[in-house]
Amino acid sequence: MTRTFDELVAEAESASVDGWDFSWLDGRATEERPSWGYARLVAERMARATAALDIQTGGGEVLASVPHLPALTAATESWPPNVARASHLLRPRGVVVVDTGDGSRLPFADDAFDLVVSRHPVSTGWEEIARVLQPGGTYLSQEVGPRSVAEVTEFFMGPQPPGYARDPERARAAAESAGLEVLDLRLESLRTVFHDVGAVIYFLRKVIWIVPGFTVDRYRAELRAFHDRIEADGPFVAHATRFLIEARKPV
User: Fold this and answer.
1) Domain hosting residue 34, numbered range
2) pTM of full prediction above 0.85
3) CATH (domain of 150)
4) pLDDT band for position 1 (50/70/90)?
5) Is the separation of the CB atoms in 116 and 46 below 8 Å?
6) In the 3-class helix/strand/coil scheme, how is the chain assigned residue by residue?
7) What are the residues facing 240 on neighbouring strands?
8) For a Cys-Cys bond, which of 10, 92, 115, 201 suits 52, CB 3.0-4.6 Å?
9) pLDDT tens string 105-160
């Protein structure tokens, strides 16, 4: 039976958005995955590392999927619900989970890790990454790229000016400015499909930078229009962008 707009809204508004697990969207939204397979790359590098750090681990989901972790593995997170979730998931595997609060400095010694990773960081502190990496150590990250799901942003907020904060070439320049050598840099556009208005509500509550300040009450008229469009034309199609960057600290 087809659910009403109000039913879909109520269900999505009450769903928990803790952690970085999107399984609530199964059957309601889909997103192509980048061809490089970030989790596989992390697992391969973790198997060779002696000391590793996962920055902005979220709920620890990616790190928990790694079959073989180094004896010394740490993770940082600043959002309290995610700190608790990551601790529950990772501490049984011997991972030290550090609550970094709002601080930008990593609470680790210089040259502490031979591998640093981060998936979808809110921002990247290149100077700090370079500081905690051992000479010859590497940083691997999958980041949200430029104008990711811009179709959704502009549906709710109207046309947006060009933005460059998540441009991969800016990331390259920042890494090199911090003294790192960029080994790999790739960008892909990924088809993203929303099948109902509840899916986009959940997504916007969880990925808060797509429509800053999103709440159901604030955007109820736009949500109604989104729902009506899907009812009339079928699923809403957007395009996520992701880039992979790998950099090394020179010996």
Assistant:
1) 5-248
2) yes
3) 3.40.50.150
4) low
5) no
6) CCCCHHHHHHHHHHCCCCCCCCHHHCCCEEECCCCCCHHHHHHHHHHHCCEEEECCCCCCHHHHCCCCCCCEEEEEECCHHHHHHHHHHHHHHCCEEEECCCCCCCCCCCCCEEEEEEECCCCCCHHHHHHHEEEEEEEEEEEECCCCCHHHHHHHHCCCCCCCCCCHHHHHHHHHHCCCEEEEEEEEEEEEEECCHHHHHHHHHHCCCCCCCCCCCCCHHHHHHHHHHHHHHCCEEEEEEEEEEEEECCC
7) 190
8) 115
9) 999 999 999 999 999 998 999 999 999 999 999 999 999 999 999 999 999 999 99
pLDDT of residue 5: 98
**d(Cα 81, Cα 19) in Å, to the nearest integer?**
7
* Residues 51-102: tens digit of each pLDDT: 999 999 999 999 999 999 999 999 999 989 899 999 999 999 999 999 998 7
The packing angle between helices 5-14 and 197-206, to 10°, is 30
- The closest alpha carbon to 231, from 189, 197, 205, belongs to 197
| Residue owning tokens 């502490």 | 112
Total of domains in the chain: 1
Structure tokens at 202: 């959940």
| C-alpha to C-alpha distance for 49 and 117, rounded to whole angstroms | 12
Q: Residue 236's closest CA among 209, 200, 206, 185? A: 200
Task: Please give the single-letter amino acid code of residue 107.
Answer: P
The per-residue pLDDT for range 172-196, each reduced to its tens digit, is 999 999 999 999 999 999 999 999 9
Do residues 162 and 9 touch, judged by C-beta distance below 8 A? no
| Chain centre to alpha carbon of residue 123 | 10
